[in-house]
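Re: Re: ligand-bound prediction request (bumping)

Still looking for help on this. To restate: I need the protein modeled with guanosine-5'-diphosphate-alpha-D-mannose bound, output as structure tokens. Inputs repeated here so nobody has to scroll up.
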Amino acid sequence: MQALFLAGGKGTRLYPLTYGIPKPMVPIMGCPLLEHNMNILKLYGIKDIILSVCYKSAYIKNYFGNGSAFGLNLKYVEEDSPLGTGGAIKNCERYLKDTFFIFNSDILSNINYYEMLNYHNKQKAAVTIAVTRVDNPSSYGVINFDKHGYATSFCEKPSADNITSHFINAGVYIFNAKVLQEIPAGKNVSIEKEIFPKLLAEGQKIAVYKGCNYWLDIGTLEKYVQANQDGFIGKLFLPNMNFRQQSIYSQPNTKISKSVILRGPVYIGENVQIQANTVIGPRVILGNNTVIGKGSNISDSILWNRIQVKNEIKIDRCIITDESIVKNASHNNIITPESTRPI
Ligand code: GDD
Ligand code: MG
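Reply:
Sorry for the wait, this slipped through. Here it is.
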């Protein structure tokens, strides 16, 4: 079975995190979001993956290559200018056959893909859309459906006075390949606003799958922080870590001085050095190739990769992006190599 990731969006709501990298590559518990989601697909035996890329596509291609180092078979389909969600799917038609999964690349969920596929087959649907219930659906695609589990209407990002359901499109679909014939080629098309309503109007069956009880769209800074915190309390499924069982995870080649105090939960990436008399934790992620200077104190913070924290620095509630050098104490800030600003 194949999976297609829509990974071309700009991720403007995550600025400044996405100035340098595309949104699907923001690290969640030390691992790019896209890699995390592909690792989960591997557990289901899905290794043939198509990546529909546009914004900062080189970053994604350089990281994953052809996928062989990750146990995956990856193909890239590039857009010169954004084709929208529907146009991007159509653009991948040459690689897609039979029945396949499609994912928005900015979500985390605990959907059981075997169950979703069985449901799709049982419902004999052209498309199955995973839905999840949210309190405020106004930034999502609202879906109404009947008692047999088939969609009856769609409303993308409704205004507050036009909310007809709290079930929203969770950004995970199963498509039968023949649906691709319904999408016009070479133009910007929205799958949510144009194609799903068109399929309904034609009388095609769109099933809704409700088996999703953990779901997060990493669309905002607040949600980005939440995803990492959910990892620490075991709410977010992490293929190789379970913080309910173990409070400190450390990757190979770390150098941690004996006098360092680690207060779990803490995640320490590869080649991290933590110098003497430092206190790390709770709820701290140290990305790969990071150096923490003597006598520093870091709590409730997400550090990406290749970061230097100088000696005697206190950091609390910060997100620090790749290659930053931290020379001053910081609280509640996003620190990038160029600037520091409040979260
Ligand atoms: N290749 C490509 N080209 N990918 C794109 C393009 C494009 O032009 N536009 C968006 N994408 C990708 C994004 O990278 C993201 O992974 C996915 O398509 C969805 O785009 P978002 O920009 O994140 O959409 P949204 O969050 O506002 O809304 C969508 O997701 C919600 C759930 O998180 C919709 O599908 C909603 O209906 C849904 O509820
Ligand atoms: Mg989104």
